[in-house]
Amino acid sequence: MLRNPAHGRKLSLSHCCLGLTIGVSLLALTGCAERRARAFPWATAVLVHPRLPTQVVPTLDGEPPPDLRPSIPETPLRLIAHSVPPRPRETSRGSQPVLVPQLSPEDMSEAKQQTQDSLAVAERNLGSTKGRKLTPAQSDLVAKIRSFIEQAKGAVGSGDWARARTLAEKAQVLSEDLVRSL
User: Fold this and answer.
1) Domain around 129
2) Is residue 84 part of a domain?
3) How many CA atoms are closer than 13 Å to the CA of 148, on its beta-carbon side?
4) C-alpha span between 172 and 177 (Å, rounded)
């Protein structure tokens, strides 16, 4: 079923004219906005404020009504609490207590031997890099190995053989990786 395009245009044009006619007639019926009488004159808006009674009227019991004004508590002098804890005092490194795990005599002797062996291997591997041209990545690796060796020697000085063994093993593993990359 085909529609006639001319018929559709006539229908929409008639709807448009009808809507326009209704709009103009509504506008004409409302009148001018400036000349229209307002329901409430704004010039007298100041007189709308309520008036408070000047005297207190006693109740039937002869007592005055209770005072219902809100009481505001005094504000404390310090309103803002500190949310950041105070900074700890600086102490020297030597005065701090060191917690060392307790090892049996056999475990301690084994940790001493493993630490010394790992440090010897790491230092020997570092010695093999002397006189060679290193890449930036290899130079960074050398610095890390030296740092682990120094930390392990510090742990040996404080008697923490478990920590010294761990640091020495890290230095050894990194030094073996360095030698493989040469």
Assistant:
1) 104-181
2) no
3) 26
4) 9
Q: What is the pLDDT of residues 61-81, one digit of tens each?
A: 667 777 777 777 776 666 555
Residue 142's H or E segment, with its range, is: helix 136-158
Give CA angle at 147 (142, 151), nearest 5°.
Answer: 150
What is the model's pLDDT at position 129?
85
Rg of the chain in Å (alpha carbons): 47
173: in domain? yes
Is residue 10 pLDDT above 70, yes or no? no
Three-state DSSP at 112 gives helix
User: Cα separation of 176 and 120, whole Å?
Assistant: 12
* Helices 105-127, 136-158: inter-axial angle, 10-degree rounding: 150
Structure tokens given for 119: 């440090």
Number of structural domains in the chain? 1
Q: Global pTM?
A: 0.46
How does pLDDT run across 100-126, given as a tens digit for each residue? 667 777 888 888 899 999 999 999 998
Which range has the worst mean pLDDT, 14-23, 41-50, 68-77?
41-50
CATH number at residue 114: 1.20.1270
Residue 70 lies in a domain: no
